[in-house]
Amino acid sequence: MGTLKKAAALLLCLLFAAAGLTVAAADYPELTPEELDPAPSLLTVMTLNRETGAGGPATQTDLPGEDFVEEDDPLGVFTINHGSRNSKKIAITMDDMFDTEWTWKTLALCKQYGITMTFFPIGRSLKEEDRDNWRAVIEAGCEIGSHSSYHAQFKGIGEWIAIGRLGKFQEMLDKTLGFHYEVRWFRPPFGNISDSSGRASTAMVRAIRTYGYEHILRWDVSNTDPNKAFEATRNGSILLYHSRHKDYVCLTELIPRLLEAGLQPVTVSELFGFPPPETSEELYTFDIHDYVGK
Ligand SMILES: [Zn+2]
User: Lower CB density within 10 Å: C or N end of the chain?
Assistant: First the structure.
């Protein structure tokens, strides 16, 4: 009986803890009925993330059908895995930048082959001493996206924490560049925002959209074996690499093969028909109050 009572008491504690969390979540300011009631696109996201599961890269079976990316509304979904399958354009992307040596070498590779790609550093890998290198990335026509301020999971965190990590990344990037560069794409660390059930929470989708990103960007090809990567790449593919020696070596072999096959590596913005991100003189400073009631 004693054990049962203890278990009951523990259960009550857990219930109260859960209730406390619910109260905290309800403090999120000025929710509209639309925000409380997820739109169909949000439901699609939740289904997608449940199918793909937490942490792992998308596989071919995880990918939505050919008509998932609508021709007239290519970005009608929250989670993007690839671009149009009817276009030869593909996007090579590189994440993290824990070791920027391979980032700059990859940039040289882009220049060598006359292609562009998108880099997703974490905020903490951005250093002011690398200012010229990051400026060179933009000058080469390449793009910079956000991988958040540091490399931590987005699942299970509060909405304001998520907004803070996104805002801090933009602040760190502007400080590094010395000008404002309006980041358009967010790729979450580990590629997902799902909670422990494998579902993307509506709250997290709402937080990311409150900050200003309409989508999260994933990938449909992730392989450092150039043969396997080449075989997996299709029209519209988004390829995931990291700033590491083995990834760089793979790209030295893969890029010429992709070009030979008639595929055209471009930035993520170009893949979806956007102009390059806008720049301006005034540096962005993150202030959580700017997002209250948005
Ligand atoms: Zn990463």
Answer: N
